[in-house]
Amino acid sequence: MIGQLTKAERQYALLILLGLALIGLIFGIAGKDDPLGVHGALVGVAALAGIFKVISIYYDPEPGDERLTRYYDDPTKFGIILAMIWAVFGLFIGDWVAWLLVKPDFTFDAGWASFGRLRPVHTTSVIFGFGGNALIATSYYVLQRTSRARLPDQLTPWFVLLGYNLFCVLAVTGYMMGITQSKEYAEPEWYADLWLEIVWVTYLVLYLRTLARRKEPHIYVANWYYMAFILVVAILHTVNNLAVPVSFGSAKSYSLFAGVQDAMTEWWYGHNAVAFFLTAGFLGMMYYFLPVRAGRPIYSYRLSIISFWGITFFYMWAGSHHLHYTALPQWVQTLGMTFSLMLLIPSWASAANALLTLNGAWDKVRDDATLRFMMVAAVFYGITTFEGSFLAIRSVNSLSHYTDWTVGHVHAGALGWVAMITFGSIYAIVPWLWKRERMYSPRLVEVHFWLALAGTVVYVFAMWNSGIIQGLMWRTYNESGTLAYSFVDSLIAMRPYYIARAIGGLLFLLGGIVGAYNVWMTIKTESERLPESAVDAPEPALGGSAVLQPGE
Amino acid sequence: MSIFGLHYRLERKAIGLTLGIILVASIGGLVEIAPLFTIHQTVEDAPDMRVYTPLELAGRNIYIREGCYACHSQMIRTLRDEVERYGPYSLAVESKYDHPMLWGSKRTGPDLARIGGKYSDEWHVAHLNNPRDVLSVSVMPAYSWLLKTALRTDDLSAHLRAQRVVGVPYTDDMIANAGKDAYGQAAPDSPFADGVTQRYGKATTVRAFDGKPGELTEMDAIVAYLQVLGRLTEAAHKSVADVVR
Questions:
Q1: pTM for this structure?
Q2: Is any Cβ of chain B less than 8 angstroms from the Cβ of A321?
Q3: ipTM value
C-alpha cells in the first residue's frame, strides 16, 4: 500500500512516527495515574507499528517517475476499507445501545458498556469513523480527477488519513474509559482535539496544494463543497474545543466558555457539524458520483452556485434553533429559526439539482441499485431538510425538542442521506479503484439497498411515533387542570417503539455487513481485472476510451 | 456582469474561493455568539450564586464521565407544562459556573435541573445502584460500582485551579483545601466538616451522602452533585422583576 513512498518520504515518515512515539511515551509517563496514560501507550504502540511497517518496505526499490503520470489512489483504497470497517462497527454499537433501552441490564455490570458511554462511541464511529473516512477517501479521488492533477506527494495523504483514524480511535476508546468533554459530537478531550487540529490543517494544505497544480481552469463544484467541509469544520472544531486542561498529565479539561455562551457555541458547532460534515462533504460526494454513475451532466450550474453559497451562509445562523425556550436570549432563538426556514431554499435547490440530473437516466435508476442508493439519498436529503426547517419553528420545537422525534430526524438524515450517498459512492468507486468490471455481486448490492431502505423507514417511523407521543403526553392536561401523565407513563408508552427502532437499526446493520462482504469479495476476487483507463491519469494518453469528467 | 459571471471567475481562484467561504461562513457565528459575551442582560445577576464544592464538582465530573447528559437535560424551558412538571424555568445565571454546560438535548429520562432536594440521599443511592430496585420499568443503566469505588481527591486542587483559569471564582483557600473539603463534606463528624461550610457557605449540605461516613466514594460525589442541582441560587424562585433590573 505505501510502496509508492520515495526514499525521502520513507525517511520523513520514520521521523514523524518517531516523534509520535516520543509524544506517546511522554503522555504515558505524565499520565501514568490517569486514563491519559493508556492513551499515551496506545499512541506509542500505533507509532511503533507504523515504524515497523515503514522499515519493512524501506529497502524496497523506489517508485519510478512513471508513477507521476497516474493519480495516486492507494490512500483512497485504504480509506474506503477503513470506512466500511467503521460502518459495521458503528452501526453495531448503535443497534446495541438501541437494545439497551429495551434491555437495560445488558451492561455486564461494567462502566464501559453502559448506555451513556457507548452512545458517543456509536455517534463518533458512524459520523467521524465511517463518514469521515469516506469523505477523505473520496475527496482525494474526486480532487485529482476534477483537477487533472496528481496529489502533490505520497506522504501527506497517508498522514492525513492515518492521523485522522488515530483521532477516531483515541475518541472511541476514551469514551469507554470515561474520557469525554460531554459536548455532543465534540466529546474527545483536549489532546485528541489538538492532534486533529494538526491533521486537519495538513488536510487543508494538501487540498490547496493539489488545486494549485490543477490543469483545469475551473474548480469543479464537488471541490467547493469538500473545501467548505474542510475549512468550516476547522473553524468550528477550534472554537468549540477551547479548553483548559486540569494538568499536563490529566485527560480532563474544562471548557473555556460556561452556561449560555457555552450552549450557544456548542450548538453553533453541533448544527454546523451537521451542515459542513454531514451535508457539505457528502454533497461534494454526490456532485461527483451521481452524475458520473448516471452518465448525465449536472442539471444546472446556476442552481449549484445558489445552493452552495446559500448553504454556506444560512447554516451558520441556524444552530440556536436547538435552544428554543431556553435561557438563551430570545433574539438569538428568533434568528436561528428565521435562518433555518430560509435554509430550505438552498437545500431543496441541491436536492432538485440532483434529482433533475437523473432525467434521462431513470431507467438506470430502476436497474442499477448503486445509482438508486444515490437517488434515494437525494430524496431523503430533501425530506430531512424540510423536516429540519419545520422542527426549527419555535412552536413545533416546543413539542419535538427533548423527544425521540429529534432522534428520528437525525437518523432520516444520517441513514437516509449520509449513509445512502456513501454506500452508493462506495459501490461506484470500488470497481474503479480495484479495476473490476463491476462489484462482486450486484445482487448483494440490491439486497443491501432494500435492507438499508427498510431499516431506515422502520427506524424513522418508530421514532416519529414515539417522539410525538412523548411530546404530547408531557403536555397533556386532565379536566382538573393538572398534568395528565407522569414521566414514567411516557416511558412505558415508548417501549414498543424502542423495540421497533432496534429492529430497524438491525436491518440497517445487516445491510452494512452485506456491503462490507461485497466490497471485500470484489477486492479479493482477482479475476476480470480491467486495464487502466483514462480516468487513472491526468493526461489522457493511456489509451482506452476518453472519459469525460464532470469538470468539463 | 451578473453574479453568475462573477462566480465564473471566482471559481478559477482557489485562494479567492477559500477566503470567500471563510468570510461567508463567519458572519452568522459572529453575530449570534459575540454579543452574548458583551450584552449584560444575557446573564441575570444573582448575588447569592455559589460555586460548586470540590465534592460536587467531582460528582459533576462523574455525571459527565458516565454520559448522563445523553438522556437527562438540565434546562427547564419557559413552557407551562415544564414549569409545572419540573419547577421554575431555568435561568442563564444558574449555569454560569458550568464549564461546560449540561443543558442536554434529549429526555430519555426526566429533566434534572431542579432534582436537588426532591428525593432523599437513600433514594438516590438505591436508584443509582440499580434503578429497577426503585422503579421496575426504568431503562437507566445500573451504576453499582459507584458505591465501591473510592473517590480520587489528590487532584482536586488542580481541578479547582483549572476552573479558576476559565473564570470560576475559587479562592486560594478553596484551592488549597479542595481534597480535605471533599472528604469533610461527606463526613459530618470529622474535623474537616467545618471548613466546608466556612468556605462555601452555611447552606452547604454536609452529609454522609452514600450512608457510609468516613468512606469517600464516587457515590458520595454524584449524590452531592444531584442534591445541589437547582439550589446554587434562589434566583429562579424570585419574580422576574426582582432578578432583571
A1: 0.95
A2: no
A3: 0.95
